[in-house]
Every structure is written in C-alpha cells, then in structure tokens.
Fold:
Amino acid sequence: MSNIITNNQLIEPIERELISEILNNPTIVEDVILKLEPKDFLNKHLAIVFNVIVKLHTEAKTINEHTILNYVSTHKELHFDDYELEINALANKFASSTDYTDHIDLIKNASIKRQLNDFANEIINTDMDITKFNELLFDFQNRMAVITSAKRSNKIASISTIAENYSKDLQRIMSHDEEVTGTPSGFSQIDIKTNGFQPGDLIILAARPGVGKTALALNFLVNAAKDSKERSEKTPNNEIVLMFSLEMSAKELCNRMVSSWSMVDLSPYKRAKLTGIDYQSVNNAIDMISELPIFIDDDSSLTIMDVQSKIKQIAMDHKIKLVIIDYLGLLKGPTLYSGNYNRQAEVAMFSRTLKQIARLNNIPILVLAQLNRNMEQRSKKADGVRPMLSDLRDSGAIEQDADIVSFLSKYVPDEIEEGEDFYRESPTIQIEYNIAKNRKGPTGLVNFDFIKSIGRFEEKRFVPLKGVNENKNYN
Structure:
C-alpha cells in the first residue's frame, strides 16, 4: 500500500475512485459500508452520494447512477451544484487498478487524521476549569478512544463462518490439558461453575463489612498469579495480575498475603512473638510471593478514569490475566464536582465503564462491592441470611452490567438463639460463596472455611442440616 495520504488534494481522487468502483461493481458495497461512513469523506458532494448509496442499500434497492440521481433529485436538501453531471461522471469513470480495500483504508486513515487534528485544536482552545479537570480529562480520554478505534471491522458474519470459528475454538479448548479456560480462581468448586474468570467479564463480589471479601480477593489474586508463573516457566507469557486497592495500603495487602500463605498470624500484637519455625514459614512465604507477577496500585484517591488509563498503559507491555478493584464504593468519578450529584447514576456509570474496559482489553475484572442494610431488616440474625441481588448497594445497574454476581455471607444454623455470637469461640468461620448470577454458567453455593486470623479461605464440602439455611431468603 502507498504511504498514508496527508494532503487533502490527494485524498479526493481516491474518494472518487471508490464511489466509481461501487457504481460499477455494487457487490462491494457491503464491505465499504461496514468500514466507512459518509462523514469519512472529505469531499462533501461525495459524502452526499455515499450517504444515498447507504440508504439505497439499507432499503434493498438497486444501486446505480439512475437510482442515485432519482433519489437526489427528489430530495432538495441533497442538491449540490451540477449534481447530475458529477454523478454521471462517477458512473463513467474508468476502473482503478488499485484494490478497493486499499482505498477504504486510505480514506479512513485520512478521516481519522482530520478528526485528531480537530480534537487537538479543541483541546488547545478549551478553557480548563481546574475544579472540573477530572471530568474534562475523562471526556477527552473517551473521545480519543472513540477516534482511534474508529476503524470498523467486519462485525456481520454468516452463521457458517461463526460456526466454523466456534468449532476451531472448541477444538483448541479440548486439546488443552487444562480444564479451566479462563483465569483460575484457585478454588475448584468456583472454577467448575465459572470455568475460571473469563476474559471480558465483569465479576462482582459483594458482602457486608467484615465477612472476608478482601481476604478472598487476595486469595484469588495469588492463585491467579501462581498459575501464570507456573505456565510462564514452561512457555514465557508476560502475564500479570493487577489489583487496585483504595482502602488498604500495598504494605497491608502484602502482610495479609504473607500471613495467608505462611499460615502464621501476623496481626500487630503477634508479630513480635514469632517462633523460629513461624519466622521461617513467613520468610518462605515472602520469597514465594515476591516472585509472583503481581502489581498493586494503592492510590486511595483513584478515579474511574485512572483505572481506565492505567489498565490501558499496563496492557501495552503485559498480558493482564485478572484485575481486582477493592472496592467500588470508594471509586471517584467525573461528577465529583457536579452540582446535580447522584451517587446511583455515578455507580451505574462505573459499572458500564468497567464492563467496557473488560471487553475492550479482553480481561476479567473482579470488583468488590458492599451490600445495603436490607438484609439486616429481614432478620435479627443478619449474618445467617443469604444476600439477594436486590441487596447490591447504590445501583441496580451493577446487577445488569455484571456477568457474574457473587455474595459472601456467614453460615449460621437456624436453631441458635437470636443475638448469640455463633463464632465467638471459633477461629474458623463457615462462609457461603453464593453465585447468584452467572451469565455463562450455573449459579449455586460454594462452601468455605475462613480462617480469619490469617485471611485464608479453604474449600470444604459440608452439608447443612435439614432445614438449616436451605434456600432461605435466596433469590
């Protein structure tokens, strides 16, 4: 292909040649329409002609000089000087020796360049209000993404092509030794239901405070990183896992991970009393974790724009296998300084944006969220009530946008007295991981033992007594 055209005088002949090619060979119109829009044409007259071609194609009408002339002549708003002569000239123009797909690319490249120039001038001439700078920056980032991703791919495909590609994917999956196709959570019962955290998915993990959602997220983080490291030792893969922590510092998270994997309580009052054996276990855990491909951002003032730009930046150099955000309620958005602030609308924007980030970067994003107090109103023994989708805090859009919604809650027998602390004397808490929504697979419960002092989750297969928490308050 020739060099990218930067001179407006050179791009117009190419636009004319493409329109002429369509008029002389209407079978190519499908390809052209899928990749170009009328606004991509520099010449306004040719943009009008192409717009008519699109309309005729949409209405399944014949495309030639006569149908185009008839359409333009009956719509006065489309008239331009000597339109009859120009359309006739386009139809009679000699066929080009250049492939029409090259013409499409050149026209699209020139269109993108013009949009970038216009956008750059707009930024230069924008009066930046520092109280609304985050909002402006977020808008600029999104508009830039729209411009730079403007090249259209052929999204429309016949079922035979779709089925052929699906068959190839199925054969590829079946040929793998691994049973999990996504990023493994490290817990077999979760992976059986989800087949791992799938690229492009938005996963919500919600619970009331103190149930262990950050601890479980760290278990997921380390398990995914260990899997990437083990596979990298066989075949280098440049994979990483990434965590945005708005509530805890990176040092605190490291302390939790070391405690979980050394099985040693590292709470402040216990650290100074470590035995020799415990100290060795801790050092071994530090060595193991330090070699894992884990990245942590503990900026407590993180905005949704920061998440978007940082993921995009990291993805340029690494293959991101999992992103964890702790937690949704602390994210800030561009409406922070808005006079008509609405938290539910802001959270809805967060969930839509995070889903878009997951899809565009083809990565799973796990977001921690809090539940509202509705579940506590259903019973005095709040810990023994299973959360429902309606308990998600701030916005129903979270439920709509998420591919998977899961809840953590304590397992409490029905027969205990109300107000009694069932776990007062127990170092291990029985936790239910409830997959309440799964767009691509089954829902259901996974049972855990949660050793709270070290933040470690272990799968178990206990069977509740008859009538105990069985389908209770479950949506």
User: Anything to note?
Assistant: The beta strands are 202-207, 239-245, 294-297, 319-326, 365-370, 404-410, 428-438, 444-451, 456-460. The first strand starts at residue 202 and ends at 207.
